[in-house]
Amino acid sequence: MAKNPMPGAGPRPVDVRYAETWLLMHRLGDGPPTPLLTARLAVRQRVRLFGSVLQAVLIPGAALALAFGGSRSHRPTLVLALSALVVALVLARALLDAWIRRVDRQAGAALARRAAHLVQPDWRALLGRPHAVLVAGSFAGAFALGASSLAVGEGTARYAAVVVLVAVVGVGIGEALQLRELLARPVVAEDEVSLTADVIMRIEDARESTTPTVLWSLPVVLLFGSAPGWWNAASVGFVVLGMLALITVRFRTPGAAAMARDVVGTR
């Protein structure tokens, strides 16, 4: 890949090594990565790490709300506090996405030329139908578990169901906003290789951000021991079925590199 200057200081050695590994893994050549590609991959690696931390905050935050929600008079306040936490996490996710867009804009401004074949993948290319079905089914299952506990539970179980539903809605809003941004994000590429790399990064971003691990975990963490036995069994079964479905989807859905080459037409 030809070299492209990027504004600011040069890339860190650890970022260069990560970019080299990424190129080899996706069979995009064995040459040194450009500063442009290195910067784009480095920010995605950091955003992926911070995004995992943000999602993980939902579970202990919701568990704390349940632990301190024993007093009926405190429950409305704690539900509002959890709602504020979810809103804060969605806003933080939006700031991380803005960080990626800013780096991509800088990379685009540094391009001496742009690829003539401008590609704008749709949601089928980004996720693949099996992964989209998995995500939709996970949201439906998590919401159904929360709604069922709200309908038949009492006391703490009903309060915890509200917590689950708030968290599920928050995760859904965050993922919908991110997918919308990925669909609208302009392509940053100057040749066939960098165009393929751009589409691969877009697909990886979409699939990573919509993997429903938090949706599987929330019902078990919040309601285990405070809901009827049938509900506890259903929540554990939800996790097991979700993991099995994810493994199946990973085998049935083409990898990001294969999907990107189909989109770009370089097979």
UniProtKB/TrEMBL annotation:
Keywords: Membrane, Transmembrane, Transmembrane helix. The chain crosses the membrane at residues 49-71, 77-96, 132-153, 159-177, 233-251. This is ABC transporter permease. It comes from Actinomadura rugatobispora.
